[in-house]
Specification:
Its EC number is 2.5.1.7. This protein is an alpha+beta fold and 434 residues long. It has 14 helices and 23 strands.
């Protein structure tokens, strides 16, 4: 198990470029299974989850070439469907949450798909229902082998339907969209997720020959085609990394410029940090975070305590709530962090409390942060990263803390953040990997 040893109190200074968006990468890489022609994808992040998905596609028979450090070519002209019945396939796909999105492409192109039940995903059950219910409405048959914990889908012929999703699931929308491109007739997906990454997937599919209307909205209309061709696609920068860098700069009173942030695709992320009192300045397509010794949390107009809550796009992404919670510990004032969409995301706050933060965990979904400003500084300690988002939040806390901290299980952080220690050390951080 790898660990970080962090010496807190070092200020950062300089420019940093966000990596390509992990959540978009998982979608568009799966979409390469829809054609036997070459698809080139640029700005792919070198992170564990994405690398594992690329390795899985190689095992399935996809010809993959690395054209540059962040650009890959995919050609799925010789898929080995027998491999999808092997124990090796089952083991690899079960360990990779994003691999659920191979269902839509495999079913649409080959008429069948097999996936094991994902393990250890406490927030995944409703998402799987959204995936399967939508695809079954297109005409697929689902069989669940309870003994082997396997889902098998098959369809001789997919037909377009009007589908109202029970939740605006990003991965569920992506899976259904990829299945619908080959469905006969017209498919309407209502209450579709409209995150920039789904918009990016839709634009890529259109360049491949798909017919999709309503891109960027929550009502997608798909007119089925018989085949798709190749294309070239470039990933957006990762909005979660952008938000994480804003939080790091604020907590360490640092001067950081986040380059090429694709501000138009960040939604309300910059403004949400501004409500915590952080100066976030736009300079072209860059975000400049000036050094701030102090920042004060806003109140609502009537003077009541600010609430920051997650919501489907264009609301605030839930992946940044843990970062904002950490940032609020150093602010002046109080804020209620309300994690509406998922359970257990706030359970890492006990570690922040041990570091000296004033936080009341109200229930699994809500935490009240009492920011003490200059009267407070986190103290270093040893802790374990429970997941990607909590892990990066604990790293931010450790970078601002007094003394040294050790974070174990940083493989979790590596799943979402490319060489984060090396990149931050170039800006002045002191992070050692062991």
């Amino acid at each position: 198990m790898s660990s970080f040893i962090i010496e807190g109190g070092h200020r950062l200074k300089g420019e940093i470029f966000p990596q390509g968006a992990k959540n978009e990468a998982l979608q568009v890489i799966c979409a390469t299974l829809l054609t036997d022609e070459e698809v080139v994808i640029e700005n792919i992040p070198d992170i564990l989850d994405v690398n594992n998905l690329i390795a899985l596609l190689k095992d399935m028979g996809v010809e993959v070439q690395k054209l540059s450090p962040d650009t890959y070519s995919f050609r799925a002209s010789a898929i080995d469907l027998e491999f999808t019945k092997t124990e090796d396939y089952m083991k690899k796909i079960a360990a990779l949450r994003g691999s659920i999105m191979i269902i839509g492409p495999l079913l649409a192109r080959f008429g069948k798909a097999i996936v094991p039940k994902p393990g250890g995903d406490k927030i995944g059950r409703r998402r799987l229902d959204t995936h399967f219910n939508g695809i079954m409405k297109l005409g697929a048959e689902l069989v669940f082998d309870e003994k082997k914990q396997l889902f098998s889908l098959s369809a001789n012929h997919l037909r377009g339907q009007y589908i109202l999703l029970e939740e605006a699931s990003v991965t569920g929308t992506a899976n259904l969209l990829m299945a619908a491109v080959f469905a006969e007739g017209e498919t309407i997906i209502y209450n579709a997720a409209c995150e920039p990454y789904v918009e990016q997937l839709s634009k890529m599919l259109v360049r491949m020959g798909a017919k999709i209307e309503g891109i960027g909205s929550n009502r997608l209309t798909v007119k089925g085609v018989t085949r798709l061709g190749g294309c070239r696609h470039k990933l957006l920068p990762d909005m979660i990394e952008v938000g994480s860098f804003i939080g790091m700069a604020a907590m360490t009173a640092s001067e950081v410029t986040i380059k090429n942030a694709s501000i138009e695709n960040l939604g309300i992320i910059p403004e949400s940090f501004r409500r915590l009192g952080i100066a976030v300045q736009q300079q072209g397509d860059d975000l400049y975070i000036p050094p701030q010794e102090h920042y004060t949390i806003e109140s609502f107009i009537d003077g009541s305590i600010l609430t920051i809550a997650d919501a489907p796009w264009p609301g605030l992404t839930p992946d940044l709530l843990s970062v904002m919670l950490v940032v609020a510990t150093k602010a002046e004032g109080c804020v209620l962090i309300h994690q509406k969409m998922f359970e257990s995301r706030l359970f890492f706050v006990d570690k922040l409390i041990d570091m000296g933060a004033q936080i009341i965990l109200c229930d699994p979904h809500r935490a009240t942060v009492i920011g003490l400003g200059d009267r407070f500084r986190l103290r270093g300690m040893t802790m374990i990263s429970p997941d990607i988002r909590a892990g990066i939040s604990l790293l931010i806390a450790a970078m601002s803390a007094k003394g040294k901290s050790i974070i174990h299980n940083i493989d979790q952080i590596d799943r979402g953040y490319q060489d984060i220690d090396l990149r931050l050390n170039k800006l002045g951080a002191n992070i050692e990997r062991t």
